[in-house]
Amino acid sequence: MRPTVHPIVTPFRVLRISGILFLICLAVFIGSLFAGPGQVGVRTLLSSLLSLGSGSYAGDADAGQTILLSLRIPRLLFAGIVGAALSVSGVVFQALLRNPLADPYILGISGGAAVGAIAGILLGAAAVPFGVPGLAFVGALTTLLAVFAVAGAGRDLRSHTLLLAGVIVNAFFNAVIMFLLAVSSSGDLHSIMFWLMGDLSLARGRDILSVGAALVVGFSVICLYARPLNLIVTGEETARTLGVEPATAKRILLVVTSLMTGLAVSVSGTIGFVGLMVPHLMRMALGPDHRLLLPASLFFGAAFLILADTLARTLLAPMELPVGVVTALCGAPYFIYLLRRMND
Question: Are 69 and 57 in contact (CB under 8 A)?
Fold first, then answer.
């Protein structure tokens, strides 16, 4: 297969493509506001935004405004933030592990967060503010520490060692999840299973703010390492020769990315394949330079999960699907396509 030649990445090209993808994301967001069982028109949208901007929105507003301001806008914002976080994390993991099939769950971050969330549900932590998300975040952080311990934090972090450590830790947490499901009561099973398949329906203002802040901070730090990522992909010896210390860069990026992913997963549930598909699509379309790949994946990942969540809300309306089901239906065929493409 003849390699694709991409244009040289310049600041102008980064801004131009990022602007185009931002407009696409905005169009998907606005279009998704009108999708759903509740009828919402353009006039309702404009009046809702005006009332929100003037601070005159009240709980006794008409049904259309309530649907938009209390349900759809927060949920779509949350979907966009989570999609962006998972996509950017996928870019970083694929670069650091030099594995095209890596995604944010390859190091077991989702498994650790799931264990913490299930434990919180069983212990009744949902009655406490940030109870279940807090325990899920602790589980994700514990997973990261366990992966470093298994991989050997005192030595150079080789890609294959990190990958194997993630597989081992993830397998252990999957066994713990099966045990917790086996001992849980029937009343808790629905909440647990829905969370495990991804659930954006309970997006609250504090969740949006916390995950949004983590995305802004994490993305800013990751962008500072765009050039080191380009060099690490070419080889650790090459990166070291050009003044980049791969082990230090890997530790910083793994910690920042894992914590960003863990916080997103802790409030949204485990949503698979976003971090696998979006970076690959952007890499095929725009090239491997992380100075462009990172912002492109940010906006396209946000648009993708907004669209997936809209389909989850509308395909079987008034019944709602977990968004993870929709992403899995899209991701599984794409995963097979990647495997076949790698073997060609």
Answer: yes
